[in-house]
Amino acid sequence: MKKITYQDIADYFIALSNESHELISNLKLQKLVYYTQAWFLAVFKHPLFEATFKAWVHGPVIPQLYHEYKKFSWMPIQKEVGEEHIRKVREQLADDERDLLDDIVNEYFGIGAFELERMTHAEVPWQKARSGLSEDDTSSPTIHNEWMKSYYAQFMK
C-alpha cells in the first residue's frame, strides 16, 4: 500500500474546499495539515506522513508545502483536485484513522485561517519552538513530533 504524504493530505483538504465551496488559503491549509499530523501523533502514536513542521511567524508550516502554494498569497488556492482524491486518501486509511480524519474536518475545516493561526499560537508546541523569539521574528525552529504528540494527547478522553 502506498504511504500517505503531506501532499495527499493537502490535496484532500483542497478537494474538500472545492466540493464544499469553503475557500482555503495557504495559511489555512498549513494549519489543517498540522492539526491532522498532531492528532494522528496523539491518537495513534505515530505520524500519518513524513514532514517537518517549522514554527514560522504565522504558525506551523511545512516549508515545501508553503512554497508550492505561495503564489496564491492570501487568496484561495485554485487547484483542480476532485472528489476522487478524497476517496483515494480515505481508502488508504484504516476505519479508526478515517474516523479521526472526519473528526479533524468537523472540528477545524470551518474555522478561518486567522483563527487557526491564533489557535496554534496559543498552543505549547509552537510556543516551545519559538521560545526566546519575539512574535514577529522570522526564523524556522522545528516543532518536534514528540511535542505535538504529548501536547494533544492530554486532551484525549
Estimated radius of gyration:
15 Å
Number of strands: 3
Strand content: 5-15%
Mean pLDDT: 94
Oligomeric state of shown chains: single chain
How many structural domains in the coordinates?
A: 1
Strand order across the largest sheet: 2-1-3
The helix content is: 55-70%
Structural class: mainly alpha
What are the key terms here?
8 helices; three-stranded antiparallel sheet; 3 strands; mainly alpha; 157 residues; 6% strand
Can you describe this structure?
- There is one protein chain.
- The protein is mostly helical and 157 residues long.
- It has one domain (6-153).
- The chain is 56% helix and 6% strand.
- It contains eight helices and three strands, in the order H-H-E-E-H-H-H-H-H-E-H.
- The chain has helices spanning 6-20, 26-44, 63-69, 83-91, 95-108, 113-121, 124-129, 145-153; strands spanning 53-56, 59-61, 142-143.
- Strands 2-1-3 form a three-stranded antiparallel β-sheet.
- A hairpin with a 2-residue loop joins strand 1 and strand 2 (59-61).
- Helix 2 packs across helix 6.
- The protein is globular, with a radius of gyration of 15 Å.
- It starts with 5 loop residues before the first helix and ends with a helix.
- The model has no long low-confidence stretch (mean pLDDT 94).
List the helices and strands and how they pair.
Blueprint: H1 6-20, H2 26-44, E1 53-56, E2 59-61, H3 63-69, H4 83-91, H5 95-108, H6 113-121, H7 124-129, E3 142-143, H8 145-153
Antiparallel strand pairs: 1-2, 1-3
Helix pairs in contact: 1-2, 1-4, 2-5, 2-6, 2-8
